[in-house]
């Protein structure tokens, strides 16, 4: 288990590693099986390996990522595919106001690879909600 947690905190401060590992083991024993790596540290390869290790150990049924562009999404998909791990979702900011060429390219790559796109902020941080009015 330490292998995929090492991506985020273990190894950053050797004095805290044992205690962090104990906490991690406890939450896994109690059923936690979702690990947010949004603020994780370590190399991208270590993160990819950690995600695949979680799948291999039966801790998740697939992998989902957030804020990946087209290039990184394609690279991660290739890596996970070699290990037999499904990349199910990518979450990006996607709305009528955020359809930039980069966002649309990410969507196209996701569509091509069979990865479901999850939109966050579909109302453009509230701008499309009708709640914002000029004084």
Automatic annotation (TrEMBL):
Keyword Thylakoid: no
Keywords: Oxidoreductase
Chain ranges of the NADP-dependent oxidoreductase domain: 49-130
The keyword Nucleotidyltransferase is assigned to this record: no
Taxonomy, superkingdom: Eukaryota
SUPFAM superfamilies per record: NAD(P)-linked oxidoreductase
Name this protein carries in UniProt: NADP-dependent oxidoreductase domain-containing protein
Organism (species): Haematococcus lacustris
């Amino acid at each position: 288990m330490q292998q995929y947690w090492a991506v985020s905190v273990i190894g950053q401060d050797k004095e805290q590693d044992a205690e962090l590992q104990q906490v991690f083991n406890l939450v896994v024993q109690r059923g936690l099986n979702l690990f947010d790596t949004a603020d994780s540290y370590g190399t991208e390869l270590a993160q990819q390996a950690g995600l695949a290790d979680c799948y291999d150990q039966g801790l998740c049924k697939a992998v989902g990522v957030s804020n990946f562009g087209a290039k990184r999404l394609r690279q991660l998909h290739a890596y996970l595919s070699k290990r037999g791990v499904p990349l199910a979702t990518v979450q990006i900011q996607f709305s009528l106001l955020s359809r930039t060429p980069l966002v649309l390219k990410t969507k196209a790559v996701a569509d091509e690879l069979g990865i479901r796109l999850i939109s966050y902020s579909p109302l453009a941080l509230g701008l499309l909600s009708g709640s914002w009015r000029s004084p």
